[in-house]
Amino acid sequence: DWLEAVSEPFFLWVHFYDPHAPYEAPRAFRDQWPNQPYDAEVAASDWALGELLRGVPESMNERTVYVVTADHGESLGEHGEPEHGFFLYDATLKVPLIFAGPGLPENVTLSDQVRHVDIFPTVLALLGISHPEALDGEDLSPLIEGKKRKNSPISYAETAHGHLYFGSSELRAVRSGKWKYIEAPKAELYHLSRDPHESVNRLG
User: Fold this and answer.
1) I need a labelling partner for 198 at 20 to 30 A (CA). Which of 143, 181, 189, 191 fits?
2) What does the radius of gyration of the chain's CA atoms come to, in whole angstroms?
3) For the stretch 128-148, what's the b/e string if a residue is b when 16 or more beta carbons lie within 10 angstroms of its beta carbon?
């Protein structure tokens, strides 16, 4: 209803809380994915997103930039973490980031590291809106168009979940190119292209 009545230009941010623990998808999805409660929630969210996109008037669709992403993944037992929040491994940090809209090529997959902080400058560039150079983040539209980077950006992540709720340490991570360093009581360093599951600490 909001999309049918909105005047342009507009910005709409929609947050689907699922998939998230406790995994309790609607029955129709639970029945389709028995014994896979997380997958059932992913499917329910995918359906809900489709309903939202079908609500965009066709006349507006050709002038709209879409961004779909997630704030975190879910470990589902990897590294002994059942959900998310305790650790900073890629099981929870690596999430989908999808751009679609006018002038964007279809079916392009980037192998370069990108970050949530890159979303804002990218959207501004895709809409032809100038932005200050001092912004954190990088316009990803040249990468989407097939241009190469000179340098890989540094990404930063942190979690205070264990500290706030269980009295353990805060964790911080920095990634540059193929390497990721995790600042923890026992520091960790991983070569992600050779060890994508972060199983061999290379700090030594």
Assistant:
1) 143
2) 19
3) eeeeeeeeebbbbbebbeeee
Indicate the pLDDT class of residue 34, thresholds 50, 70 and 90: very high
pLDDT in tens, 55-67: 888 888 888 999 9
Per residue in 108-143, pLDDT (tens digit) is 999 889 999 999 999 999 998 988 888 889 999 999
Average pLDDT, rounded, for the chain: 92
> Encoding tokens for residue 184?
């923890």
Mark residue 199 as left, alpha or beta (left: phi above 0; alpha: psi -120 to 50; beta: remaining): alpha
CA distance 115 to 95: 10
Beta-carbon contacts of 142 under 8 Å, excluding residues fewer than 6 positions away, are: none
Q: What is the Cα–Cα distance from 12 to 34, expressed in whole angstroms?
A: 34
* 36 three-state secondary structure: coil
pLDDT at 125: 92
SS3 of residue 189 by DSSP:
strand
pLDDT band at 23 (very low <50, low <70, confident <90, very high): very high
- Spatial contact of 184 and 170, defined as CB atoms under 8 Å apart: no
b/e 172-203 (16+ beta carbons within 10 angstroms → b): ebebeeeebbbebeeebebebeeeeebeeeee
Give first-to-last CA distance, the chain, whole Å: 58
CA distance 104 to 65: 9
Nearest alpha carbon to residue 73 among 83, 61, 65: 83
